[in-house]
């Protein structure tokens, strides 16, 4: 039996005072372990609150470095930890908050190859990832290991949370059997997010994690919570096990982990590492524009153009592209761009489907143009 | 008239509208009515075989239509139909 030291009695006294937690509960938390996938927007509050609550062993999986644009919402990191590994930045902060816990960091992407090795031995998984491949891995690993997967996801002002636990209720695939195709779902980085939103949803995930570890209250098993920050609305829908679920039904079709391709694109991860036949660098485009005049197609939103703009570009926001193809000419060379070169790639997919062939994608988007060609433009 | 609530990621296809009043006495008819107003939504809701996409979930009130009568689930004038898509953001 894990016991508390005198220092821990003082530290956790506000927990010890609640009958639902008490000494037995606090000792239970100290003996528990939780694996947090991602130390970003959701992972920040999750890791901080679980550390403060005295979860005995916390695992962190991430492979990024802390960047300026993270700090609008990733409050576990700090101006002083810019350019440091996120798992190390987070670990130091957690141990600063609570030296009586163990934090194990995994500085690697979560993949089909390493997921079981990393997750085995943890009592719960908390999904704070930002992309579909990792979400499906978190779910499937939790199903295979028979442990709960505390789910949270955000988009602009919307959030979702649930507890997927196949032993007691549905899993993520019961609701979403397979990931969506790329062009139908914008990624978090392209779609933007209100900085405090992951704080709200991550705090709910931390709450559910602690409840599940203690075995108290009514968890979100079998319920999906839907939050909208603009309306300040919390709605719930009921989720049942899907008898045809590909992974947790009686006759599963998925029996091992799958690495889905990074089709739903998170800029700076995989897409950028894979050059494609359409890509043109900002410098090459600048050279090309001295002798020819391709149509520059800006698929960003109007509010983004107020931040940085190429005056000669035509603007059709990505969401309107499919219905405004008649404004474009298949005979003209078109260079598509967005903020970082991600949305524009999906725009190219739509244009290809509509018979356009003379296409180029501005690699790195207008941000790369701002960095390499016109430094008077802002990078955002 | 029943109302269909459009989630944020799909509002690009409904001119930003979130609550759409539709005609129809079943879920299927309501979706037809919605797509007649906003045809660009179609590819987000149905796949190339005309089936509901796997990542689009429809809820009548709190209940998944799969647990009711699917697309044949009857609707009343006051019903609210929710479209719940998968969203992936969080770490970034
Ligand atoms: Zn399932």
Report on this structure.
The complex is a heterodimer of chains A (380) and B (92). Chain A is built from 15 helices and 13 strands. Chain A is of the alpha/beta class and 380 residues long. Chain A folds into two domains: 237 residues, Rossmann fold (3-Layer(aba) Sandwich); 101 residues, Oxidized Rhodanese, domain 1 (3-Layer(aba) Sandwich). In chain A, strands 3-2-1-4-5-6-7-8 form an eight-stranded mixed sheet, sandwiched between helices. In chain A, strand 2, helix 5 and strand 3 form a beta-alpha-beta unit. In chain A, helix 4 runs parallel beside helix 10. Chain A starts with 5 loop residues before the first helix and ends in an 8-residue tail after the last helix. With 92 residues, chain B is of the alpha+beta class. In chain B, 16% of the residues lie in helices and 21% in strands. Chain B is built from two helices and five strands. Chain B is globular. The N and C termini of chain B lie far apart (40 Å). Chains A and B meet through helix 7, strand 5, helix 9, strand 8 and helix 13 of A and strand 4 and strand 5 of B. The structure holds zinc ion. Zinc ion (ZN) binds next to helix 8 of chain A.
Beta-strand proportion of chain B: 15-25%
Overall radius of gyration of chain B? 13 Å
CATH class of the largest domain in chain A: Alpha Beta
Helix content of chain B: 10-25%
Large-scale geometry of chain B? globular
Order of helices and strands of chain B: EEHHEEE
| Major sheet details of chain B | 5 strands, mixed
The count of helical stretches of chain A stands at 15
Main sheet of chain A, how many strands, which sense, barrel?
8 strands, mixed
CATH architecture of the largest domain in chain A: 3-Layer(aba) Sandwich
Number of strands of chain B: 5
Quaternary form: heterodimer
CATH first level of chain B: which class?
A: Alpha Beta
Work out the strand percent of chain A. Answer: 15-25%
Named CATH topology of the largest domain in chain A: Rossmann fold
CATH-defined superfamily of the largest domain in chain A: NAD(P)-binding Rossmann-like Domain
Low-pLDDT segments of chain A: 263-274
The secondary-structure element order of chain A is HHHEHEHEHEHEEHHHEEEHEHEHEHEH
């Amino acid at each position: 039996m894990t016991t508390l030291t005198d220092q821990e009695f003082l530290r956790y006294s506000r927990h010890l005072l609640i009958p639902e937690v008490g000494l037995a509960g606090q000792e239970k938390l100290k003996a528990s372990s939780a694996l947090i996938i991602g130390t970003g927007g959701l992972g920040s509050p999750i890791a901080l609150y679980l550390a403060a609550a005295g979860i005995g062993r916390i695992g962190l999986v991430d492979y990024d470095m802390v960047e300026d644009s993270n700090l609008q919402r990733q409050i576990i990191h700090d101006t002083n930890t810019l350019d440091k590994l996120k798992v190390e930045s987070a670990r130091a902060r957690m141990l600063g908050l609570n030296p009586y816990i163990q934090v194990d960091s995994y500085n690697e992407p979560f993949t089909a190859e390493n997921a079981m090795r990393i997750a085995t031995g943890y009592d719960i998984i908390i999904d704070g990832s930002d992309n579909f491949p990792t979400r499906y891995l978190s779910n499937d690993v939790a199903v295979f290991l028979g442990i709960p997967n505390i789910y949270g996801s955000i988009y602009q002002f919307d959030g979702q949370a649930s507890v997927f636990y196949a032993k007691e209720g549905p899993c993520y695939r019961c609701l979403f059997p397979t990931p969506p195709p790329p062009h139908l779902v914008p990624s978090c980085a392209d779609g933007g997010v209100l900085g405090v939103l992951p704080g709200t949803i991550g705090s709910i995930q931390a709450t559910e994690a602690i409840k599940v570890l203690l075995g108290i209250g009514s968890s979100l098993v079998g319920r999906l919570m839907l939050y909208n920050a603009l309306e300040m609305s919390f709605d719930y829908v009921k989720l049942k096990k899907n008898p045809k679920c590909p992974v947790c039904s009686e006759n599963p079709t998925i029996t091992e982990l799958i690495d889905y391709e990074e089709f739903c694109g998170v800029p700076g991860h995989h897409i950028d590492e894979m050059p494609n036949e359409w890509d043109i660098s900002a410098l090459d485009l600048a050279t090309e524009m001295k002798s020819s005049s391709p149509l520059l197609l800006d698929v960003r939103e109007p509010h983004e153009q107020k931040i940085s703009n190429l005056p000669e570009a035509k603007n059709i926001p990505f969401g309107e592209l499919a219905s405004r193809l008649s404004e474009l000419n298949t005979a003209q060379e078109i260079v598509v761009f967005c903020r970082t070169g991600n949305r524009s790639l999906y725009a190219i997919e739509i244009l290809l489907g509509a018979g356009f062939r003379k296409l180029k994608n501005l690699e790195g988007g207008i941000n790369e143009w701002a960095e390499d060609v016109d430094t008077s433009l802002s990078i955002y | 008239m029943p109302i269909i609530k459009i989630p944020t990621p799909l509002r690009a296809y409904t001119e930003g509208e979130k609550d759409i009043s539709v005609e129809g006495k079943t879920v299927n008819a309501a979706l037809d009515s919605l797509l007649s107003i906003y045809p660009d939504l179609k590819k987000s809701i149905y796949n190339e075989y005309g089936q509901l996409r796997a990542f689009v979930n429809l809820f009548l009130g709190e209940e998944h239509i799969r647990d009711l009568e699917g697309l044949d689930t009857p609707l009343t004038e006051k019903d609210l139909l929710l479209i719940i898509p998968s969203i992936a953001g969080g770490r970034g």
